[in-house]
Amino acid sequence: MSKIKKIGVLTSGGDAPGMNAAIRAVVRAAIYNKLEVVGIMQGYEGLINGEIKKMKSHDVSNIIQRGGTILCSARSEEFRTVEGRKKAHEQMIANKIDALVVIGGDGTFSGARVFTQEYDIPVVGIPGTIDNDLFGTDYTIGYDTAINTVTEAVDKIRDTASAHNRLFFIEVMGRDAGFIALRSGIATGAEAILIPERETHTQELQTYLEKEYKEHKTSGIVIVAEGDKSGGAYTIAQEIGKDHPEYDIRVSILGHMQRGGSPSAFDRVTASTLGVAAVDALLDDQKSIMVGLVHGEVSHVSFNKAIKNKKKVKDSLLILNDILSI
Amino acid sequence: MSKIKKIGVLTSGGDAPGMNAAIRAVVRAAIYNKLEVVGIMQGYEGLINGEIKKMKSHDVSNIIQRGGTILCSARSEEFRTVEGRKKAHEQMIANKIDALVVIGGDGTFSGARVFTQEYDIPVVGIPGTIDNDLFGTDYTIGYDTAINTVTEAVDKIRDTASAHNRLFFIEVMGRDAGFIALRSGIATGAEAILIPERETHTQELQTYLEKEYKEHKTSGIVIVAEGDKSGGAYTIAQEIGKDHPEYDIRVSILGHMQRGGSPSAFDRVTASTLGVAAVDALLDDQKSIMVGLVHGEVSHVSFNKAIKNKKKVKDSLLILNDILSI
Amino acid sequence: MSKIKKIGVLTSGGDAPGMNAAIRAVVRAAIYNKLEVVGIMQGYEGLINGEIKKMKSHDVSNIIQRGGTILCSARSEEFRTVEGRKKAHEQMIANKIDALVVIGGDGTFSGARVFTQEYDIPVVGIPGTIDNDLFGTDYTIGYDTAINTVTEAVDKIRDTASAHNRLFFIEVMGRDAGFIALRSGIATGAEAILIPERETHTQELQTYLEKEYKEHKTSGIVIVAEGDKSGGAYTIAQEIGKDHPEYDIRVSILGHMQRGGSPSAFDRVTASTLGVAAVDALLDDQKSIMVGLVHGEVSHVSFNKAIKNKKKVKDSLLILNDILSI
Amino acid sequence: MSKIKKIGVLTSGGDAPGMNAAIRAVVRAAIYNKLEVVGIMQGYEGLINGEIKKMKSHDVSNIIQRGGTILCSARSEEFRTVEGRKKAHEQMIANKIDALVVIGGDGTFSGARVFTQEYDIPVVGIPGTIDNDLFGTDYTIGYDTAINTVTEAVDKIRDTASAHNRLFFIEVMGRDAGFIALRSGIATGAEAILIPERETHTQELQTYLEKEYKEHKTSGIVIVAEGDKSGGAYTIAQEIGKDHPEYDIRVSILGHMQRGGSPSAFDRVTASTLGVAAVDALLDDQKSIMVGLVHGEVSHVSFNKAIKNKKKVKDSLLILNDILSI
């Protein structure tokens, strides 16, 4: 039987819709399993500073639908230092916390991995980031919501683009990965999608635009991943516009609204599943792993692998868009 | 090389959000592959009556985001008869249509199966129904949107339930399956979920409500699948209310709004993927099959199996809700 | 100078989106004017029972966008009795509350009026109800949100109605008034709108449907106010369907989702304006009045008039729909 | 009796949500009054080029809920010339169009005014712009929708701002007017609102932020109108950030999504009302006027006045926000 009596849960790094649903699931799964559970504010920073509070079932009532995170999030410079982590460990002892569930991205898991090596403390991670750039899970919490947010915004832009026969370059988030751009591009019927995983030949885009946009289309949408090597929506728009002053070009950077909002049903179910799975993993004597969803089933991957490996975008989706944008 | 030169596409049975995205994908994938493509109005009824029109790329512009189906849908009694299908076949010959893509549910595929047996015509099906009750695919087109629609509606009801400390019984669609109820129940943090796949012991629900709702909760949501054996939300609400006049009970039947609305990003990507996959399957000499998504990859299942087998709800989700509703 | 040092705020009766925005405005306007302010839970019930808590600026942070009411609401039988109001008055003295702001509908204001007569206590009302049925204000808080909720739901139903060429009877809230039905009917392009303020001749509707729906329309939407004398959507649908078995008729009762949801921008601005206006009115020595918006400006109307007079629906809107539904 | 037998309708300038609802109302009101009606594509450009098509009732079915404009819009350089307007007039004669309804903003009305002076043709304008910057109407079509779009986007940003205790500068549209910024700022509970109509003292903002944001607030939102004299969100953010490197500042430019989307119920009702009113005005022998809504009633204002006068923002709303942001 597991010796864990009390667990702590925190959110760290960039926030993502569905983090609250995950917190709720961790808290209730802990209580269901007769564990005590505390919430740690501000990520690792709050662990170091002892911003810790007992969580009961009622404390997570009516939060499943809320964006953001009730535990707040922060990036902690101090936790990167040996002393920082020492303080964190002292707080865990002082508060009798036996194990941690950390919700975040690869930065969060890197910190967790070092911590668990130094102090032999069980830590289980839950993938929470809109970017979907984590190896070991098909979906990260927040990704589906972000895609829907982008899709709704681009639908709106399509209205005005069509009314004026305009060509829009729309930049979406995703750090150095193209997951958001790719799926939202397909979902919005984008004429082209520029992602870091595929080299952007401006010349090809030019040819495509001349062939399709000028001849057939009443509006054009090019989705640009923020990490695309072309340098972002403004740069590529300028380059295209230079050669084609006859295009009526506009640029839109969707920005931080992609990080917020009430989570989609999909993200809530994923977050609920993974929150329970994280507590299960701790009770199952796991440590230094991330729980994920692979082919619809809960899976475990070591922090080490989750951090080191790069998740690939689906080539089939890239091909799909080439077909659909004719 | 395939001898198919011209394909027809139709939507049949209950409509579902994302059908337009699927039509768009079929049309463009056909054109991409140098095929001619026609749209058939009103499902099989329109095939019998020759309501057929040529589709070009532009005809499916700007429809990916629209609910409903631009080809309209209908249930055809005539297609169930030998003569009806004879007329349909004659129309196909007259219009030089070599193969069909049919978008719909099991009724649609049953008709297609008989038709393909009688006339040796290649027909490929795309699963389009909000109910998700088709064997051979993890997701049907429209399911994710319906769950989001339910989730948003229940979020609204939760607001007023909390303000008044009320207990709501909310009935959702799904025919004789509990897929919509189960996932939307988890997504909305429902206190209980009643689905046909699990026997509903009113007594158990009573006990749960007395233990949880009365003691801890500031509001209560019970999601009831329309096919649940308890007889629907009104019946079960009455039964519970009879024994507990002190509960402030309300009932809401969400109804047909679950069938409409702009499709979610997830459904649009699924519909786009399956539309292209259906044309690929035809070019690959497939017939009498449904294309689906299994573990994120395109799969084929015979109409026969898709119709005969019953898709199971995930037990893990049932257990999940028991944990999360404490 | 006003002798008011401390005010209490409560929400009572059916909740409405925007009540939280109004609470926020009352609390902050009070603090801005150097008053103390307390929140009273559960309406008059909480006043009687002393469920009272001090409110600071931070307590109303981040609630402007939330549906429901953080103070909860209830109907209080006890407050209708002399003893109930006596207890309420004693609580006010014990808690040193000099005046009240009550947010609700005519039931709320009726109670307030008696209370202020018996104890000479300044009470100012804010109109909070989705029904818009209060004399003395052009808009009540929650009305615009409810109309948008209905409009979005009917848009979804229109999708599926068009796909199947169906005739829908959709019942909306509004108690014995037709405000919600009328504006949402126009906003959704309804083929007909049935409201209590206009007699419903089933025969006329029949004629209209035969002339328009059968001949020209690909779908039909009839919006029915819950208070309509025809007896509601089910009754009227049955009556029409009896004579016209060839119509493909469906009924949808939108229900309690109309009471919840994040308030629209319009409702938030109205609630913010009226919340500040209510505190201003108290400081201006007003009592027994409701603040409202008339022609975009803050106005005052006595509780007496607000309760007794009946607000009329705009005839111009009735005529408008006759023109637009051709 | 009016000698008008046939009218034309066009949309011009920047598009706005609700333009389709206005087109629908114009077309149906014309038919209701036994007039013929044609749609003119691409604004004045299409009038010059004869892009004109007959409109029947069915042509405007199911468009009330769509963003953009089915008639498309454009800015026409040629219509600014004498020859351009001559061609337009010739087209009107050739097509037997007796009068025009033009939907747009002040540029649209300026063109209309000159045209009606030169050729004595009745032209009635409908105010369609998200900016609400037209004198003679309380609301322009698209304004309410744009505010709701901004409000939903800022709600999302608030989620992530709160999770990270960040200060956001969010730039919204409105050309040289602050209407969108002001109402959406109040609706989102913005900590500060910068609009062209009020001088922005960076120093004051600094003081406010130091007093409020640093001491009390868990997040900060500053709404900046694009026309604000401070130079836009980036400039002001940089200025504030220079002095306060300790603030965690982010900038978001909401961009063109503000111009699209399904119109709000309010905009649909306004558009429907004004569409009918425009046809009524023509039948009433009006010319060279804009129809508007003042205090909820239809009003007429000459193009001359609508163009020359500047609509003022409500001072009461400015004061309101100072109170509510404490």
Question: Layout of SSEs?
Answer:
The structure is a homotetramer of 326-residue chains.
Chain A: E1 6-11, H1 19-32, E2 36-40, H2 44-49, E3 52-54, H3 82-94, E4 99-104, H4 106-119, E5 123-127, H5 143-164, E6 167-172, H6 179-187, E7 192-194, H7 202-213, E8 220-225, H8 233-243, E9 249-253, H9 265-283, E10 289-294, E11 297-302, H10 303-308, H11 315-324
Parallel strand pairs in A: 1-2, 1-4, 4-5, 5-10, 6-8, 6-9, 7-8
Antiparallel strand pairs in A: 2-3, 10-11
Helix pairs in contact in A: 1-9, 5-6, 6-11
Describe this structure in words.
The structure is a homotetramer of 326-residue chains. By secondary structure, chain A is α/β, with parallel strands linked by helices. Helix content of chain A is 42%, strand content 17%. The first copy, chain A, has two domains: 6-142 and 263-308, Rossmann fold, CATH 3.40.50.450; 144-260, Rossmann fold. Chain A contains eleven helices and eleven strands. In chain A, strand 4 (99-104), helix 4 (106-119) and strand 5 form a beta-alpha-beta unit. In chain A, helix 5 packs across helix 6. The longest helix of chain A has 22 residues, at 143-164. Chain A starts with 5 loop residues before the first strand and ends with a helix. The model of chain A has no long low-confidence stretch (mean pLDDT 95). At the A-B interface, helix 1, helix 5, helix 6, helix 9 and helix 11 of A face helix 1, helix 5, helix 6, helix 9 and helix 11 of B. Chains A, B, C, D: Its main location: cytoplasm. Chains A, B, C, D: Mg(2+) binds at residue 106.
